Amino acid sequence: MAPLAALRGLRALSIANNNLTGPFPDVSMLPALKMLYMSRNKLAGGIPPAAFAHMRGLRKLFLSDNAFTGPIPTSITSPKLLVLQLSKNRFDGPLPDFNQKELRLVDVSDNNLSGPIPPGLRRFDAKSFQGNKNLCGPPVGAPCPEVPILASPSPSPPSSSWWSPRSLKILMIIALVVVVVGALLAFAGALTAMLARRREATTETQGGGVGGAAANADAARMKATPNPAVTVAHGGGGGGGEQQPHVTVSAVPAKRGGRRDDHGRLVFIQEGRERFELEDLLRASAEVLGSGNFGASYKATLVEGQSMVVKRFKEMNGVGRQDFNEHMRRLGRLVHPNLLPVVAYLYKKDEKLFVTEYMVNGSLAHLLHGGSSMAALDWPRRLKIIKGVTRGLAHLYDELPMLTVPHGHLKSSNVLLDAAFEPILSDYALVPVMTPRHAAQVMVAYKSPECGETGRPSKKSDVWSLGILILEVLTGKFPANYHRQGRTGTDLAGWVHSVVREEWTGEVFDQEMRGARGGEGEMVKLLKVGLGCCESDVDKRWDLRDALARIEELRERDAGAGADDSSATSSVASGGGGGEASRSHSS
Hints:
- The chain is of the alpha/beta class.
- The chain folds into three domains: 131 residues, Alpha-Beta Horseshoe (Leucine-rich repeat, LRR (right-handed beta-alpha superhelix)), CATH 3.80.10.10; 151 residues, Phosphorylase Kinase, domain 1; 226 residues, Transferase(Phosphotransferase) domain 1 (Transferase(Phosphotransferase), domain 1), CATH 1.10.510.10.
- The protein has 15 helices and 20 strands.
- Keywords: ATP-binding, Leucine-rich repeat, Membrane, Nucleotide-binding, Repeat, Transmembrane, Transmembrane helix.
């Protein structure tokens, strides 16, 4: 950590997912740290009791999957701590007490801790403490041994001299002073409240409703488009359903470089872009693109002719304002041709707005299942889309290693297509700002097989989503018609397996897909990659880098034009789900 000593203002540090060895590093020279990620290394030994004493602003600490020993340092109880992940270590001794009301997640499972669970931690689920056989009390249910209570001596009666006339006189004087001071404070409080109400009334009279009236007026003008045959969005992800927008926010000009956001202010996080006000969006001609699990999306065409998409998120309250702003700045630094950048956002307690560019060819889901433009998706174009999607996902894995699921919501309605049919990923990296309950309900990564078994996604849950997307593109089948959300049953991958097993591979591919002649062998190779990414056994499931390497090798036409497809068909049938057998398949 010595090279980082000069960076005393460093706020986030991630050295996770490495093979680092040795003792716990000295991070005391980084007092400004708010987020520290050290999970999945080989660090060992005890952590000094005062290791975190100077980090009073520490919010997230991830130390899981190491070999730390000894007691959990009491200095870890930072007053602003939100997330604590200490699972799969060798910590022993009692748990420190955590009295932070904002503490949202604690996981100390699979250690050697003992003693009663402190009152401040009893509100968390028992899974957070499992694997510690000597912990007791709620919520784990194991009774704690009774500790005998020593009788305390009776208090001695007060001295009679205290009730002398002189003492009573002093008490009366003190009481009179207290009453007078209390009356003065009450008068001052009432006066302050009255002045504040006057200022609010003046403000409302002079500038009231800059966003409210304009927003309601413009919302009434917004046109709702008919629902497509399948509930998928045409332009911004999500499905049909909610038809009338209702935006009640105020607007102020956004300056270059962004700003600290206050209530109702639009914050730009993309440099070098033309700025506009939220009021410009509210006054623009607009149409509803659809309403999905998160909220409604609208297309707004500004006076200058530029079209933007405004997406409302109703349930995005997993973190407070400061952490939300920090996460959005992190997303603003992501630059990749296959990622849809968030141009600006608005933070309000009850909803969030994201502003992005409008993609003229809509979503992949709309072209596959909801429109008449399906002929535009021939085999070369579908291969191009899969390559771009995988490259964008790999970039997220590279840039956001601290996230278990860097995308989290990869599906065809979140793959947008620009004028050249280049795929653009949207709605990525939203898990950190959502509540765990809502994420588990709606996010695609939480429907992976491992979530059905453990309730938690893995580093390969996004790979599973990629595999389902590949099969959807090749077969033209809508995954929701086959999906069982991790429970026993037939999903899209299972259906493909059953068809291939009967050696009917030709029946798997979308019959509407044109331009496939001469490329059947390459299509079968891509089908095999999709099945490998959909392996229900996480250990056998392909790594993203393996899948990307295989996909990059694919071509629109087979190497030997006119090659017989039957050998590839039998290879998929015998190779099955993409474990080691599928990896050894030559491409």
